Amino acid sequence: MKALCWHGKSDVRVDSVPDPKIENSRDAIVKITSSGIFGSDLHLFNGFMPTMESGDILGHEPMGEVVEVGSAVKNLRRGDRVVVPFTIACGECYFCKKTLYSCCDTSNPNAEMARKAMGHSPSGLFGFSHMLGGFPGGQAEYLRVPFADVGPLKIESDLPDEQVLFLSDIFPTGYMAAENCDIKKGDTVAVWGCGPVAQFAIQSAWMFGAGRVIAIDSVPERLEMAAKHGKAETVNFEKHDVYEQLQEMTKGRGPDRCIDAVGCEAHGVGTVEVVDKVKSAVRLNNDRTYSISQAIMCCRKGGSISVPGAYAGSADAIPLGAFMNKGLTMKSGQTHMQRYMEPLLAKIEAREIDPSFVITHRVKLDDAPKAYEKFRDKEDGCVKVVLKP
After folding, report:
1. Given Cys at both, which of 68, 150, 339, 363 links 367, Cβ 3.0 to 4.6 Å?
2. Could you report the per-residue pLDDT of 39-72, keeping only the tens digit for each?
3. Which letter does DSSP use for residue 308 in this model?
4. Strands 56-57 and 2-6, bridge-based pairing
5. Could you report how far apart the first and last alpha carbons of the chain are, in Å?
6. Distances 242 to 58, 64, 110, 130, 216 between C-alpha atoms, Å
7. Model-level pTM greater than 0.85?
8. Residues in the chain with pLDDT < 50?
9. Could you tell me if residue 72 is left (phi over 0), alpha (psi between -120 and 50 degrees) or otherwise beta?
10. Contact 355, 383 (CB under 8 A)
11. 338 three-state secondary structure
């Protein structure tokens, strides 16, 4: 089959690789019909994620048709149309029973590698390094899905792929980000970044009762999407001092809730941005902390910060003194996908939201390498790419 494979920093190629096979009785094989390029895929493309190996298949936002199931999979059959969550969960361990699916104790075969880096291992993830399982991803013609009796969501309506595809990651991720903020009715919510996850965090903030949403970015088409589809007020950080602007907009108090939907490749302006880039380049700092540090400084006293943005390693220069003295609360984590997929599908079916608004580019799998470059460089109004294997 054809698959998009990682071969080093800024080097992805469509290769011919062996077709996946059933390896466990709880596996399924899915023929991919649509697969998204996700913002955190760029962390791999740009060389920020350790334990990648040449030839690794990328992609963790897929859906398609079941073509084979293992003997223990009783909830799926050939021909079923499914969305595959990016987190792999067993459904039986201590964490899965608490619906903390992205903390699954069972699904990462390389748990010891992750434990050494993080203290404990999260769940396995599709297409996201060997530290997180080394599982081939979904930017391919076919995908092996472990624990298929727990993960995939069956789509039984005639909704098109583009309306349900993002149940695999960005819609639940944005929704959990808003939920983690503990939004109270009427709160002002500030969202750093206007990429795809941020767009759904904005949409979800309104669902939780926000009275006001402010979106922060510098890319015009992303800011325009946040304003048009998310009804957000916008701040361009290249034109305004974000701290000063947010204080002015909130009469000096600061936003009640802040969401860092950027992660380890955050960009800013001025000296801090330059220092972060230098540290990253010489490996003194794995992650750039511009957005999360700014959220801490801007958030009102006693407020809360949610971090759906992906971080890959370690960082310094985070204002922990401000975090502690202001009495802030922070929640983060990979998304507990299996908790959210079904209820969010119900919202789509009820026409409360059409997630396809975020798509700007549709390309064939063969054109994926160029699409990665376009997405990275924010060219041609590229906000969200969907691959069609």
Report:
1. 363
2. 889 989 999 889 999 999 999 999 999 999 999 9
3. -
4. antiparallel
5. 10
6. 35, 42, 41, 37, 8
7. yes
8. 271-272, 274-275, 278, 282-285
9. alpha
10. no
11. helix
